[in-house]
Amino acid sequence: MAEAAVRALASPIDAIADQELDDLRARGTYRSMRILEGLQAARMRVDGRDVLLFASSNYLDLASHPEVIEASCRAARELGCASGGSRLISGNLAVHEALEHELAEFLGMPACLAFNTGYMANVGVIPALTGDGDLVISDALSHASIIDGCRLSRADVRVFPHGDVDALESLLRSEAPKRRRMLLAIDGVYSMDGDVAPLREMIPLARRWGAMVLLDDAHGIGSLGRRGLGAAEIEGVETEVDIWMGTLGKALGSFGAFVAGSQRLRELLINTARSFIFSCALAPPQVEAARAALRLIGSEPWRRERLQANAARLRAQLSERGIETAPSTTQIVPVVVGENARTMAICERLLEAGFYAQGIRHPSVPEGTARLRLTPMASHQTDEIDALAAAVADEVQRSA
Ligand SMILES: Cc1ncc(COP(=O)(O)O)c(C=O)c1O
């Protein structure tokens, strides 16, 4: 009886869901989740098969590092598994403040504030700094969280073609006289193409025209640069960033995110960033795992070097087999296939061959540019990289 009543209530919703889902199926963008089992590392069980993982953002393989695990377990034993509230109520723990202090020091910034995810950081910080009549300027390939942050801010938004410094300059020049505030919000490493933003040119331009700069380096922090300072370090502008957003759930092998900037910016975010204020704080095991990972970012630079060497080898091996990976220069290595169905069929065959590589379709990438997004890790062996390159080349060519 109870079950029948529930079904009757759900049916109008199911009709709507079916309509929307049929639409997605017709466009070839219906998505479903794979099930992963085992220790978070370079080899995992995916949908019941033991495979090499080339789809993870655990780039440095720190999520299963013994020191990270031990720090997290100790925090659970000594501090518990939850923060118990939002930071402004009862959840502001000493370990949050310690993590923020250490992240600020690592980045050479005056202050830092932790957020629960990178998505929440971007939708918090952009509306905290801009509103009606202000302008946010962003790249055509900016991450969805920057786009959503812009929408929530109610600021005007202007988008320049991907990586186009001249277009950015003409926007800044024409908008500067009309605007109270301008914010340039850009990714450091583009998450679907693996290229680095031309920050060496963009940041000075923003400064010249009086725009603040928010650099989202979710994929660069920890994985790029001699010290792991990411895209800004590669571009030689690590001392020029106004606002730095980074994540703890990718190279840092934990969960969460942060915004680093001035002490005043931190105060402003604590007081106005809704995604910070109205959400339970990060749990102690996550915070302590991130602190341990941050120490390893400093003490084990070989992980970063291995990661980038693996990525360079993968690009070279693919190129030798006639497969393009441009414009990637980082550990995110795209192989653009084009059609949705063909891309997903290649992924399926790679999985059968023992490689988990994710297929990416619209709206994560522009229509018609569906791709394999290959992400090697520091702990992959060179023969594993070579085997992946051979399998990808085979499958791409066979499906042509
Ligand atoms: C460029 C960029 N910014 C922000 C995010 C969101 O970070 P999080 O996964 O911590 O929400 C991502 C996630 O993939 C990203 O690629």
Summarize the structure.
The chain is 46% helix and 16% strand. By secondary structure, the chain is of the alpha/beta class. The chain has a 7-stranded mixed sheet, sandwiched between helices. It has a 4-stranded mixed sheet with strand order 1-2-3-12. The chain has a 3-stranded antiparallel sheet with strand order 11-14-13.
Q: What structural class should be given to the helix and strand makeup?
A: alpha/beta
Estimate percent helicity: 40-55%
CATH architecture field of the largest domain: 3-Layer(aba) Sandwich
Percentage of residues in strands: 15-25%
Head-to-tail CA distance between termini: 54 Å
CATH topology of the largest domain: the name is Aspartate Aminotransferase, domain 2
Summed up, the helix count is: 15
Number of strands: 14
Shape: globular
Mind telling me the CATH class of the largest domain?
Alpha Beta
Bound molecules: pyridoxal-5'-phosphate
Question: Quick one: biggest sheet?
Answer: 7 strands, mixed
On the 0 to 100 scale, the average pLDDT is 96
Core attributes:
binds pyridoxal-5'-phosphate; alpha/beta; Aspartate Aminotransferase, domain 2
